[in-house]
Design brief:
With 316 residues, the protein is mostly helical. It has helices at residues 2-33, 40-58, 60-86, 91-113, 140-162, 164-174, 176-181, 186-208, 218-233, 238-256, 262-265, 278-283, 287-290, 294-305, and strands at residues 129-133, 136-139. Helices cover 71% and strands 3% of the residues. The chain starts with a helix and ends in an 11-residue tail after the last helix. The relative contact order is 0.18.
């Protein structure tokens, strides 16, 4: 039991930090531009595939550095020549633009790399068990993913709160007109933040690709969870995105590892539905079986009882 709790906690924190790498960029983009970017998870997918391609040519480590830079630059181009022109037509046009962009990026990835999963492997340098916990060998690569995620989290918060660039970005989030009057190029700041957000998603793709399945549908599988994180954490709140990411990561990880059912959880009550009924079947569904819908259930409850999210201050 203790082994299950410790391993699930490690995996939950790791998954949560990977979610935060993507949700942080999405949160910054929403805070600054008011756009919920439906294509954000596609930059995660693109980062994984670009990292895979570079790893075939030059190895994993050059891919870890170059892929986020390439995808970040692509994100900047999308903002400069796409979103900036669409912005004048309102938020609906922006949402439709990013929604269409997600499909375009998925189709382009399928054209270049195909629909089947690619053989993106863990680097040989990290392909060994870091430690043994009871009877479980914990991979060194997962510890590397955890370390990278923590380092980027610390660096991002330090940059936003301790540097002049961070202060300008934070000011542009809430008072863009005042920042422009002080002589700063607000459109350039917008473009840079969009690029950084895409680059953060790409880093998550590069480091998650070898551990998870790298395929063209990975954006569609993960994209909805990002919006759950942003809404639960609070629209525009970076600290809220961190708390929500960890909460959802731990919730899903522990749920997947649990075989308990409603019958087990409420055994003390003595209640038991009639046999051979739908209620009896539902009563015996395990927590692991409903794990995929738990984040969305949390989203529904949050919108019902606290629309601003855990740490947000906007309702729309």
């Amino acid at each position: 039991m203790l082994e299950l709790v410790l391993i699930s906690t490690l995996n939950g924190v790791l998954y949560g930090l990977l979610l935060f790498l993507m949700a942080s960029g999405l949160t910054l983009i929403f805070s600054m531009m008011g756009v919920l970017n439906f294509a954000h998870a596609s930059f995660y997918m693109l980062g994984a595939f670009v990292g895979y391609q570079i790893s075939k040519w030059a190895g994993f480590w050059p891919g870890l550095i170059l892929a986020p830079l390439i995808v970040g630059a692509a994100g900047m181009l999308v903002e400069r020549f796409g979103l900036r022109n669409v912005h004048k037509n309102g938020h609906v046009a922006e949402l439709l633009f990013t929604f269409g962009l997600a499909f375009v990026m998925e189709e382009l990835v399928q054209i270049v790399w195909g629909k089947a999963p690619v053989d993106y492997r863990v680097p040989a340098l990290l392909d060994f068990p870091a430690f043994t916990l009871f009877t479980t060998n914990y991979p060194a690569y997962k510890l590397f993913m955890l370390a990278i995620s923590l380092a980027i989290f610390v660096g991002l918060f330090a940059m936003l709160t301790r540097t002049r660039i961070g202060l300008i970005v934070q000011a542009a989030l809430t008072h863009p007109n005042m920042v422009a009057h002080l002589g700063h190029n607000v459109p350039l700041i917008f473009m840079s933040v969009f690029g950084v957000g895409a680059g953060l998603a790409a880093i998550a793709g590069v480091i998650a690709g070898p551990a998870l399945v790298t395929q063209s549908t990975m954006a569609a599988l993960l994209g909805p969870i990002l919006f759950v994180v942003v809404v639960v954490g609070g629209l525009g709140s970076l600290s809220g995105a961190l708390v929500a990411s960890l909460l959802i990561g731990l919730l899903q990880t522990f749920a997947i590892s649990s075989n308990a059912s409603m019958a087990d959880l409420f055994a003390f009550s003595g209640f038991s539905p009639q046999p051979n009924t739908i209620m009896n079947d539902l009563w015996r569904v395990s927590v692991a079986q409903i794990a995929p819908i738990l984040p969305y259930l949390l989203l529904v409850l949050m919108l019902m009882f606290r629309p601003t999210g855990l740490m947000g201050n906007r309702e729309s």
